[in-house]
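Thread title: Can someone regenerate the structure for this chain?

I was given the following input by a collaborator and told the matching structure tokens would be attached. They weren't. Posting the sequence so someone can regenerate them.
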Amino acid sequence: MNQTIRELYERKSVRVFTDREISEEDRNLILKSATMAPTAGNQQLYTIIHVTDQRKKELLAESCDHQPFIAEARMVLIFCADYLKWYRAYICAGAEPRKPDVGDLLLAVEDATIAAQNAVVAAHSLGIGSCYIGDIMENYEVQKEILGLPDHIFPAVMLVFGYPDRQQLERKKPERVPLSSIVYENSYPHLTEEDIRDIFSDKTGDDFDGYMQRFCKRKYNSDFSREMQRSVRTFLERNFDHEI
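Best answer:
Regenerated them for you:
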């Protein structure tokens, strides 16, 4: 196993940071690494917002499901799906572009997410921990105001960075399911109820029903999950039913 693969295996989310600051050199390495990510047509359909204002960090900590560690992070980055720059360039050039649609958004979300993962891997190689904050997709109206987002700019990924404390360094990374539960050859399989129970057996043990009922209540049916659905739906309704 080479060093890169070892780091992919070892990397885990970090939610408690020391007071050590991230140097400007390392910060720029992380950001530059993000921009080296694969991208559709070399368009880089994303914009990265580096949040340095402490008050904004505190507001994001509240709007992203009340998580104080966000405000304590040494670096906070928002990866926005951004097809607007290219669309405006087409307009400037008189290219008569079609109206943007949801496919453009999804392509930009892909670009933003791939760039974010590059940043995560780069940070880990420097000994800097990170954590994805999916809650940035909640409370669209609030995030739009905090970050000054124009229409059609979607905050797809939020990352917080910092040096992990000892407990975080020693904490065991959660196990992943085996490849046989993830990788299928040539087509999606017909999964029986027995297959489904087997896929999750490493997580649920002998209490599949109880585990799934608790997890569904805590995650899938949670207030924050319902808010995320409302927020994303609001973004779509506001940005794809009128001209830019």
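The chain has one domain: 3-174.
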